[in-house]
């Protein structure tokens, strides 16, 4: 009887410890941040705009950017010094997604971490109505 009670207590302790580890894994700040970005990408923020500046002048703009991702190394555990994303390039910088720009499709782009850039929600589809 005492042996069975000890076995039950050890089993409860293992379950509590496993539950704590699982809780810390699934609800860590980084995991919650990933969940938040996924929800934001899925339920809105579809019209993100990235504007890249050089010496105070606008040099590139991308429409319908879902998110900017920080690059990480393949074999080392360090982040790379740039962010990347996908979006429609505003070639003539007029603030409207023209038919030829839309037909070109989304382009991959990289922004250096220390560069001057803005990332904001455009609140509307940039295609002309």
List the helices and strands and how they pair.
Elements: H1 2-26, H2 29-42, E1 48-54, E2 57-65, E3 69-72, E4 79-89, H3 99-104, E5 107-112, E6 116-121
Antiparallel strand pairs: 1-2, 1-6, 2-4, 3-4, 4-5
Explained architecture:
It is a single chain. The chain is an alpha+beta fold and 129 residues long. It folds into 2 domains: 1-43; 45-129, no CATH class. It contains 3 helices and 6 strands; from the N terminus they run ααββββαββ. β3 (69-72) and β4 (79-89) form a beta hairpin. It starts with a helix and ends in an 8-residue tail after the last strand.
| Percent in helix | 25-40%
> Largest beta sheet, briefly?
6 strands, antiparallel
Structural class by SSE content: alpha+beta
Query: What sort of overall outline do the alpha carbons produce when their principal axes are compared?
Result: elongated
Q: What's the total count of β strands?
A: 6
Distance between the termini: 78 Å
Number of helices, counting only DSSP H or I runs of 4 residues or more: 3
Q: What's the SSE pattern?
A: HHEEEEHEE
Task: State which percent range the strand residues make up.
Answer: 25-35%
Q: Let me know the average pLDDT.
A: 83
Our Rg estimate from Cα atoms comes to 23 Å
In the residues, how many domains can be counted?
Answer: 2
Point out poorly predicted stretches.
none
């Amino acid at each position: 009887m005492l042996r069975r009670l000890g076995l039950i207590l050890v089993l409860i302790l293992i379950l509590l410890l496993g539950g704590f580890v699982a809780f810390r894994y699934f609800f860590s700040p980084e995991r919650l941040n990933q969940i938040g970005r996924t929800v934001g990408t899925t339920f809105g923020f579809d019209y993100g705009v990235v504007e890249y500046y050089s010496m105070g002048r606008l040099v590139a703009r991308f429409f319908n950017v879902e998110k900017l991702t920080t690059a990480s190394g393949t074999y080392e555990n360090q982040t790379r010094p740039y962010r990347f994303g996908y979006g429609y390039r505003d070639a003539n910088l007029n603030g409207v997604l023209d038919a030829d720009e839309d037909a070109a499709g989304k382009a991959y782009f990289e922004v250096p971490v220390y560069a001057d850039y803005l990332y904001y929600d455009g609140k509307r589809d940039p295609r002309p109505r």
